[in-house]
Amino acid sequence: MLQLQQLAAGYGNIKALKNIDLTVPAGSIVSLIGANGAGKTTVMKVIMGLIKPEFGQIFFKGQNISGIASHKIVSLGLSLVPEGRSILSRMTVLENLEMGACQRQDNEVQADLQRIFQRFPILEERKAQLGGTLSGGQQQMLAIGRALMSRPELLLLDEPSMGLAPLVVADIFKVIQEINQEGTTVLLVEQNVRQALKIAKYAFVLETGRISLHGQAEDIAKDPRVMEAYLGGKK
Amino acid sequence: MEFLLNPYYMQLITFIIINAILGISIYLTLSTGQLSLGNAGFMSVGAYTSALLTLKAGVPLYAAVPLGGAAACLLAAIIGIPTTRLRGIYLAIATLGFGEVVRVIILNLKITNGALGLSSIPSMGVMLSKGIAAFGLAGGIGGISVRQLGSIAVILILALILGFLIFFALRLSSSRLGRAFAAIKADEHAAEVSGIDTRYYKLLAFFMGAFVAGIAGGLAAHITFYIGPKDFAYHRAVEILLFAVLGGSDVVWGPILGAVLLTVLPEVLRFATEYREMIYGAILVLMMAFRPQGLISESTLALWRTKLTRQPKIAGQDKVTRRTTP
């Protein structure tokens, strides 16, 4: 569904991504893991068109989308849950969700809104509350809900577990799996490697701007280098 | 009656309304979180375009003022496409610079009469009183002279324009467009990944602000019948900004209240003669210390709404029961 070919990008003189080849097959969950500063978030930003690639191509459903403006990428069926959630804190929960559907002209927006309230009942309870007054976990749910309101075929999640309690993290990962089972492809960037590899089908390991390892998620989880670097010793 | 209709008060009311329109113009750009100080520049373009069109080309007043707005809008396109990429203080500095450039150009052009400015611009009040006189009311009615009738008509027309702009701004804030503006103001990054074309909307808000400022400039030109480059200097840009700072920029009522207060305040403080500017400054400093969000914010409106709707609850219920009976 999504393919990155020989992608390079950076911020001025800093080359954050050097040569990235990455494939996300339709219907799967793909995890992108790596240490801080490896370039995970940059990959997400380049896919969404927030940063222009210096080299290489991005294909979504066979269409070259590299260098296209973000709002057009959203209308093609990609949606990002940004790192740190980026909730519109002075708007209500309902308004936040409606913002996610701002490009849609169809009349199923209300139905989708109900579906999101079914998935996250707490959001319906708090729909008149300002986004900024929610707890971290609720904000993450709101960010995911907002991204789903644009009806994406591919959902990009940038560190959904950041700063959340273990129980809430488990909830979020369950929801990600549910969303995937309902037919949305997921590309997940995570620090929580154990969980990320558990739910993913494929995984890519990013190290200083390069893909150092990729394959089936379970094989990656068993790889001694990954075990040592991210999962706490070889044992 | 005679007291209220004296030319000084009439003039003050027209200035209040024009400043309120300028308040709306800065509110429109601020509603996307863009701090533009170019409104004085756009105002001068509107004023000079409208004045020159009536003076030199004989264009009727009602056509010249919107054309002034259009000219400001056109210039906003040229200046806006590169500058709306800038954020925060950088945009403020760039637009402030733009305003000064416009002023210097006007100062040096022959057609704008340089530093002397344009005088004997066709006056709206005179035109309207002539119209009223032609209507057969040359003697005035009920002790109100035809000149006063003209001034009243000017105020009515200005109030109508202001009313329309307020209505437009209120409708805007509850529309898809207004929600997009608010999202950009809240978090540009989040807005972008939600699929909002931030560049387009920011530019649109910039255009709307410029157009309204241009209209205000045109109206001001035809009310004061004299304009000079000094009227639209740095001082004016800051004054327009203060409307939004004092009144608040969350809701359209904020800059309007700011405009009213900041137009009336210097007049009220006239008794203080040389201390006037000092008191004026002190009020602004106190304001910043105790109410940095401005006098009216969204929460103040919500508070008043609940206060006002709590008492007539019984009356409201009455209405509901009445509606159910066929």
How would you sum up this structure, described in words?
- The complex is a heterodimer of chains A (235) and B (326).
- With 235 residues, chain A is an alpha/beta fold.
- Chain A has a domain at 2-86 and 153-230: 3-Layer(aba) Sandwich (Rossmann fold), CATH 3.40.50.300.
- Chain A has 10 helices and 10 strands.
- Chain A has helices spanning 40-47, 70-76, 93-100, 109-119, 121-125, 136-148, 166-181, 193-199, 217-222, 224-230, and strands spanning 2-11, 14-24, 29-34, 55-60, 63-64, 78-81, 154-158, 185-190, 202-207, 210-216.
- Chain A has a 6-stranded mixed sheet, sandwiched between helices. In chain A, strands 2-1-4-5 form a 4-stranded antiparallel sheet, covered by helices on one side.
- Chain A is globular and about 45 Å long.
- Chain B is mainly α and 326 residues long.
- Chain B has one domain (7-295).
- Chain B has 14 helices and 2 strands, in the order ααααβαααααβααααα.
- Chain B has helices at residues 7-30, 39-56, 61-83, 88-108, 124-137, 146-173, 176-186, 188-193, 198-224, 234-247, 253-268, 276-290, 298-310, 313-324; strands at 118-119, 226-227.
- In chain B, strands 1-2 form a two-stranded antiparallel ribbon.
- In chain B, helix 3 (61-83) runs antiparallel to helix 9 (198-224) and helix 10 (234-247) packs across helix 11.
- The longest helix of chain B is centred in the middle third of the chain and has 28 residues, at 146-173.
- Chain B is globular.
- Classes of the chains: A alpha/beta (235), B mainly alpha (326).
- The A-B interface holds A 48, 50, 69-71, 74-75, 79-80, 82, 86-91, 95, 98-100, 102-103, 146-147, 150 and B 176, 179-180, 182-183, 186-187, 189-199.
Q: In summary, what is this structure?
A:
Chain A has helices spanning 40-47, 70-76, 93-100, 109-119, 121-125, 136-148, 166-181, 193-199, 217-222, 224-230; strands at residues 2-11, 14-24, 29-34, 55-60, 63-64, 78-81, 154-158, 185-190, 202-207, 210-216. With 235 residues, chain A is of the alpha/beta class.
